[in-house]
Amino acid sequence: MWVLIFTTIVVLIIFRLKKVYSYWKDRGVDYVSPLRSFGPFAENILRMNSHSEVLKRIYDEFPNKRYVGFYNIFQPVLIIRDLELVKRICVKDYHVFHSHSEIIPSELDDLWSKHLFNLTDKKLWNNLRTPLRQFFTTNKLKLSFPVIQKVSRNLINYLKTKSKGQPYTLETREIFKRLLNDISANAYFGVNCDAINNGENEFMYMARKAMSISMMSGVKHVIANLFPRLLKSMGAKIYSKEVRTFFTSIIKQSIKMRYENEFRGPDVINTLLQLYDADKSHLDNLSESTVKNITAQAIILYFAGFETTTSTLSMLVYEITLNPDIQTKLYEEIVNTLKGFNGTVSYDAIMAMEYLDNVVKETLRLHTPTSLLDRRAMSDYEIESEDPKEKTLLVKKGTPVWILQKAIHLDPNNFPNPEKFDPDRFSYGNKQNIKNYSHIPFGSGPRSCLGYRHAMVVVKLTITELLLNYELLPTNKTYVKNSSKTYNIIDHGVWVKLNPRMK
Ligand code: HEM
Description:
Layout: H1 2-20, H2 23-26, H3 34-37, H4 39-45, H5 51-60, E1 67-72, E2 75-80, H6 83-92, H7 110-113, H8 122-133, H9 138-163, E3 168-171, H10 172-189, H11 202-226, H12 228-233, H13 241-260, H14 268-277, H15 288-322, H16 324-339, H17 347-351, H18 354-366, E4 372-376, E5 381-383, E6 393-395, E7 400-404, H19 405-409, H20 452-469, E8 470-473, H21 486-492, E9 495-500
Parallel strand pairs: 2-7
Antiparallel strand pairs: 1-2, 3-9, 4-7, 5-6, 8-9
Helix pairs in contact: 4-5, 9-10, 9-20, 10-15, 11-13, 13-15, 14-15, 15-18, 15-20, 16-18
Protoporphyrin IX containing FE binds near residues 116, 308, 312 and 447.
């Protein structure tokens, strides 16, 4: 009897899997076999390779295809290779692809599902993105520049205290994390932190906890993907209770302080207060959902910029340390440009540095911090055939669509000799050779990165201050890469020797 039940279950599962995994074959789309589709998960979980590097291998296997079928565990995903299709999905036909895939059911964790990145409802998303956008305009960034500069100078002072005028060996990822913490805690939570001098600072500690939960949430993602109801019925959340309570209470304190001091300046918290509960004038009158909504947005603004900007700073330092000619050219540009600005590092001065801009762009190309842009078809969508061997493809409503940034950035058809760190690709004379939509570290279209200008300011300012004070030299701990596998480099830590400049 049991044997019969067991056999029936196995047959049903096999039958179901066969149906799921024939999705791309049935549509005549070239695809990665289901077994191989597990590769990215396995290699990532076993820390053999990053998600983006495994996906790049898949992208490279289909050099002549505009798109490729893939299975994200059980879910069919369309991987886009063609740059014209990237444009259609991100920009031209954005009305169809305005949303990300909902990996975790929205009702599972409100702090997670209510934040800007995860909002799937176009109207709700737009109502939130529009007021937040004002904080990332040039004018606003100029106003917040002194605050960012104060933190970056705190970093230099910290390094000076440590190095005492002598060469000093440093692992840069950790110190850049502390820098980002201090900048973002102030900008989005209204809290002054000094994690640079005290890495055990409570805010930083809780943020690390929340982010390691986010990494752990990889496992929850898989469970949510397979058994969403199970997770919900278990009352599972993405963020732990401790993390939720901590960040919510920080936001409450910030709001209280605003009411008590009648501080109504147009910062992120006040703007969100205005958006959610404009008529309230006391913390006690605010609804729980307003506090949660504001906390959710502060968390995403903090987290979205944290790993991405830290990784960009570290990888930039790494590349210019191993490429002294580039470092010298960059240092000379910084010194020469500042001469035109009374020797003062200002917003306008760092924005006037063209080579610095090229170095940052090339870092983002070669060491793209995020692995893919994901979109979901919100209605059926046709991709017309372009050659006789291809059929017109109907992308069914709900299908996730992935654009593999790193694979596109390292495709020799887009960037010749792609493994080489060569900022001159973006120089004034060369930039017309860069294909549209081939350089997409911040995504593209209305759903692209909200904070990209902010990130550029933080990276450019920090590198300027660092190079003005130190020459960067390799140490015997500096891992020397044999490919652009950022993952390996980061695993070893990004070690440099800071050699103080004589002034
Ligand atoms: C080097 C640093 C950064 C990189 C490479 C980066 C990259 C990205 C990418 C690839 C996306 C998805 C875009 C798309 O799907 O088209 C994104 C979205 C986003 N980023 Fe960034 N980011 C960086 C820094 C920041 C910073 C500093 C902030 C906050 C101040 C930020 C806030 C956001 C937000 C809120 C979204 C979601 C936007 C939406 O869905 O409307 N990012 N970012």
